[in-house]
User: Fold these one by one.
Assistant:
Number 1:
Amino acid sequence: MKEHIKNFLNEEQDPRAVEKITSKLKDILMRNEEIGYIGVQKKPAINVFPDSIVLTNKRIIICKPKNLGLSMDFTDYSWNVISATFVKENILGSEFSFTTNTDITVSMDYLPKIQARKINTFAKEQLEELKQAPRAEAPSSEPVAYQAPENDEIEEVETEEVENFAEIMPASQQSSFPVPDMPDTSYAEKTGKDKALSELSKEELFDKLQNYKKLLDNGLILQGEYDALKKEILNHL
């Protein structure tokens, strides 16, 4: 058995699934990012390509094989966007879930009970460390007094207060800089994003949803962001 997967096979994890995941994760791990735990689904029926969940010191990564295991989708959530974690134990395995600051819930079921407990413990430890991490000190807002060099002489210049700026501006410049009319923003403030979606037809809403799906497939937005956008569009259909 390969050495790099031995540490993640202590709670009935599928060795083939763990080996495939770790071989792909080495290309997406960030600097100083370390894997803390790997959980693998164990469904009662035959599951050749199970889903997995990877917890590192920086994020949670959901791994879902596709195309008969030839490729894999990775969806990650950094610890600073996760608000809470939960474990629900069922007759057949357990379900681990977590919520984000944007009220998105992500779950993975059919996890062996001991794996779900270890995942939840590791997640709560990471969230606790994040709360206790010292915050960077904000820059002082107190003004800093400037002290002129003792040996330098400062020349005093008499100034005359100008009450009307037009008196010192040439007539040619006064006419060449008209004051633009300020646009009326009250309509935009009242309508907002929801008003814009409500004005779209069903075909336009479907097109917008397909565009978001393309951004997700190309890795330009996260799964969580896509789910939120999709939910908002479906509310207008």
Number 2:
Amino acid sequence: MSGPPRLVVADGVATVTLNRPAHLNRLHREDLAALQSHFGTLATDPAVRVLVLTGSGRAFCAGFHLGELDGGDTAASDGPQQFERTVDALEALPLPTIARLNGSVYGGATDLALACDFRVGVQGMELRMPAARLGLHYYPSGLRRCVSRLGVGAAKRLFLLAEAVAADELLRLGYLDRLVAADALDAEVHALEQALRANAPLAVRTMKASLDEIARGDFELARLREREAQCAASADLREGLAAFAARRAPRFEGR
């Protein structure tokens, strides 16, 4: 049944599924509230090692429900700002995240996927950011994310031209990390999950935070040094070195 995004956790992997397939998984305010709640839950659960964000049906997501912008000046700003807070919460998650792009990506969903650490797309999908065609100035953190991750040239192409961009071009631009046939999507996402889960959780989480801060240009060297020292003194590092010496798989505990 259609409704707010669903959260399922199994074997250390959380899957959040957008759940309005009849409307290309467009996001209503109640959906944004549900996503924020899910992200809040995952942010404080160290047992969850990876988040996969995906859609139901034939599209990943059509972005924010534009019908909810019709309520005057306040509605025209409140909705996008709630959307911005939701995407920022996704980017800020300490655990690594994968966008499983089961289909095309439109509007604000382009930023929702970009806030994930990795994006796996399917052949035949496309991306379109129609803000300029609608008369919208996109929210600041979304612009920053696009420029920092794809470069200003790619960002201008996506935002100012408002043209549809095919999957092969999205791979070339660096928007997609991997592009596969639809029947290979689950296997590719699973391979990424396994690779992330095989690594030391503390190192993955701290380096993710540091890399994102560097990309935003707001990092402090002292804070990065603290994380470096934390990992250097960790049980995970001792276990990793012992496993390497013994030629066995490490058993990390995230501390």
Number 3:
Amino acid sequence: MSLYSLTRPFLFALDAEAAHGAGLRAIELAYRTGLNPLLSSRPKPLPTRAFGIEFPNPVGLAAGLDKNAAHVDALASLGFGFIEVGTITPKPQPGNPKPRMFRLPEHHAVINRLGFNNAGVDALMKNLDCARYTGVLGINIGKNKDTPNERAVDDYLIGLRAVHERATYVTVNISSPNTSGLRDLQEEDTLRRFIGRLREEQEKLGSNGRRKPMLLKIAPDLTEAEMDAMAEVLLAAGIDGLICTNTTIERDAIKGHRHAHEAGGLSGAPVFARATAVLAGMANRTNGTLPIIGVGGILDGTDAQAKIAAGATLVQFYTGMIYRGPALIGESVEAIRAGRGF
């Protein structure tokens, strides 16, 4: 029996957001006391190349678990091939009122409406200055809640400039359902102007030969027409890659559950099919020219390999860590290894 399976009942007895904090503190304690091998065994390397970056294995931690990059070393010690932190905004903000995070154990799911709660980009950078981690680091950037959409690009430019030197890659998050109007930035004409401006800044920042890939994280709630338009815009703009997908606002899979009426993004098993369909749709529309990170509903190794089969080069999870613990990392690496025929 793993250490996580012993501690999970305690964590699940807590409020979901309190458990989030307690879980991170437990991982940090295990790391600092040398007990992290009891949480998971580091998987054997499975080198994977994407966005011009060499990843030690294709299984990463999705943004949202470590918003402020306060636990990077501890999380990396579990065996992830890469870590993504954030979403971070230019200024600190508390996020939405509590309660704002709900577990749905019957569905292996979570609903959250955290609302980009974070300590601000300066605090994140200070935390990273203290971290020893030298592996692949993604930094996920967003806009402050009180910044109107017509000035949203300014917030993303602040974030991009602030994190560019430290990040291995930067993720532009315009797909969270928990910041009012944020997903409107995915609309074709708006997206074209928005991404164009960020791409200009990306190339300017990388003019010293240290160009960093920029990825776009998209929603699972896109129509076929919206995916057509988005693919056209992103290919023309020269974006480096995609993350498919964020959480869903759909509730069909959890009808009748006591939390089904709660606002926010639904993650975990119920989003798997929808997220994987968008992944496959975008892979097809971009003819495999854009590397994709598949995220959304990975609860076992079979799910991870299914994302690869649908067109992903890499995968990430967050909710899967809540229900399965760190053992999911190695299980996913081995499933992908088997899928490659190794």
